[in-house]
């Protein structure tokens, strides 16, 4: 290899590591799931292609900003407890890079959100602000669940308001998504209870303890599924019953896994699977989700 080739390879290595760090710090799996679900719901509601794309960009960049801000704000805590799974601790990316990326992402999110319209744009930006508030402070308080309830609920509100026609989201649909968000929060917190407590983070799941939170997480996911099945007008069709049953099985599996394997990330993944099922059921009931004011 020539010296020029060696130099270019050495220069590319830090860039590749930084990109890998940004991907890992973005919390890619939940970001992709949330973005995909919001985009699918927008399409199911009959939004034109341009609106569906804007929803994807707004929600996607908002999720990136939340993930990057989380690892930027938590960098000192992660270093203190030696969280080698975190890209900052692993030396892949610096907090400064994450800060810049988070601020750039939220700027794009603001433009894309407001392009959907004032009301849906403001609703989505408040949802993103709630997630940032969780990262910055609320995660360490008894109110740790509140940003998840508000942000998930407002995300559904934003998608419905961005759809064509003078429609607003039905109360049962917003309630179901909000409860789903709180369940995902509790499930996501379970693997890190001890590490969080060691650095002064004591949200609601920490205060309740592992056993109580291990029961609460699947309970909330089941409750959200029940609301999705029973919420639309008329008796639930067979597809709704089947989807609800699947969501309950996934939620119970999340609870069992949380008890048997306390450090496992599977409960959060199963919680996201419940979210996928619930949104699929919501997409089948678009006439009941979005109603005339």
UniProtKB/TrEMBL annotation:
<dbReference type="GO" id="GO:0016765">
    <property type="term" value="F:transferase activity, transferring alkyl or aryl (other than methyl) groups"/>
</dbReference>
<keyword id="KW-1133">Transmembrane helix</keyword>
<keyword id="KW-0812">Transmembrane</keyword>
<protein>
    <recommendedName>
        <fullName>4-hydroxybenzoate polyprenyltransferase</fullName>
    </recommendedName>
</protein>
<dbReference type="Pfam" id="PF01040">
    <property type="entry name" value="UbiA"/>
</dbReference>
<feature type="transmembrane region" description="Helical">
    <location>
        <begin position="27"/>
        <end position="45"/>
    </location>
</feature>
<dbReference type="InterPro" id="IPR044878">
    <property type="entry name" value="UbiA_sf"/>
</dbReference>
<feature type="transmembrane region" description="Helical">
    <location>
        <begin position="239"/>
        <end position="260"/>
    </location>
</feature>
<feature type="transmembrane region" description="Helical">
    <location>
        <begin position="267"/>
        <end position="287"/>
    </location>
</feature>
<feature type="transmembrane region" description="Helical">
    <location>
        <begin position="212"/>
        <end position="233"/>
    </location>
</feature>
<dbReference type="InterPro" id="IPR000537">
    <property type="entry name" value="UbiA_prenyltransferase"/>
</dbReference>
<keyword id="KW-0472">Membrane</keyword>
<dbReference type="GO" id="GO:0016020">
    <property type="term" value="C:membrane"/>
</dbReference>
<feature type="transmembrane region" description="Helical">
    <location>
        <begin position="102"/>
        <end position="133"/>
    </location>
</feature>
<feature type="transmembrane region" description="Helical">
    <location>
        <begin position="145"/>
        <end position="164"/>
    </location>
</feature>
